[in-house]
Amino acid sequence: VTTLEALELITKRLGVRTVLGVSNISFGLPSRPIINAGFYTMAMQKGLSAGIINPSSKEMMNAYYAYCALMGYDKNCNAYIAGCAPQAENISRDVPVKAAGLTLKDAIIKGLKEDALHAVKHLVNEASPLAIINEQLIPALDHAGRGFEEGTFFLPQLLMSAEAAKGAFTVLKEELEKSGQAGTKKDKVLLATVKGDIHDIGKNIVKVLLENYSFEVIDMGKDVAPEKIVEAVITEDIKLVGLSALMTTTVANMEQTIKLLREKVPQCRIMVGGAVLNQEYADMIGADFYGKDAMQSVYYAQQVFYH
Q1: By the 8 A CB rule, do 63 and 23 touch?
Q2: Which string of b and e fits 121-135 if b means at least 16 CB within 10 Å?
Q3: Is residue 188 classed as helix, strand or coil in its secondary structure?
Q4: Could you tell me the CA-to-CA distances from 235 to 75, 90, 265 in Å, in that order?
Q5: pLDDT digits (tens, 9 = 90+) for 99-108
Q6: Structure pTM?
Q7: What is the DSSP code (8-state) at residue 194?
């Protein structure tokens, strides 16, 4: 405790850098790496500049990667993923740098937004926007999606890929409009977090991915009453609705929303997702599809509209 107090005083009040050997704290105790990792994390929180640690200790390195990720020192959690999930692909422990000669597909897979923009601006002089979408953009998103499903790609990477693709798609959309090819009607999906639930992170991730796969997303937001969802479905002639709930107390409202949709627009398909749901519960409340993650929602939307 005295050491931690001293660290805070020296680093935060005086602005002096510090170095500390952290393992002495655990002498005489069993399972020393557990204590060492806990103390190391506390010391970093108090402002420790550098720790003398055993880099071969999994506990110590995990503490370091987790701390940097949580504090925002590790951009997009790149180092955490590389250090703690060795099977992850296309990442390094360093912040990604601009790479020369990347294809659009590679830039999207790696989540490099600027590189993707650079690549697509060159590509539009060589190929049609539709060809670029079909041969580079969509395959890159499919690659990221498969990796996510297989556990070699993780959520920060998936979102970075989606953002890179979104930027490139904006350029391609402008080119399509210039050529008069952008008039085709997009398939519409309505998303909403159900009444009483104010959590919409999952819904927002689904929205980004669906938009990248060229769906038009009508986002109703969070805490949406069943009647409003039904009204929008009728007005917009929606064929697919995505409902989200994160709290056990609001799943009942999801069931109520599904019931009302069945009464008023029985032809509409309903997919559901959220931390508190599983396949059994989704079946019980009458959903057509349960998406265990965001990519599953994309796959189901493709099935609904294209098969």
Answers
A1: no
A2: eebeeeebbeebbee
A3: strand
A4: 42, 44, 11
A5: 457 899 999 9
A6: 0.66
A7: B
Pinpoint the alpha helices (H) of the chain: 2-8, 32-45, 58-71, 78-84, 104-110, 113-123, 129-132, 138-150, 155-179, 201-212, 226-236, 251-264, 279-284, 294-306
- End-to-end Cα separation, the chain, in angstroms: 63
Dihedral angle over CA of 248, 252, 253, 255, nearest 10: 120
Q: What 8-state DSSP symbol labels residue 270?
A: E
Cα distances from 33 to residues 43, 62, 98, 235, 254, in angstroms, run 15, 11, 38, 60, 45
**CA–CA dist 84, 79 (Å, integer):** 8
pLDDT tens digit sequence for 203-229: 988 988 898 888 999 999 999 999 999
Do the beta carbons of residue 141 and residue 165 sit within 8 Å?
yes
The pairs formed by 94-103 with CB atoms below 8 angstroms and a separation of 24 or more are 103/136
**Rg of the chain taking only CA atoms, in angstroms:** 24
Please list, residue by residue across 179-201, b when 16 or more beta carbons sit within 10 angstroms of its beta carbon and e when fewer do.
eeeeeeeebbbbbbbbbbbebbe
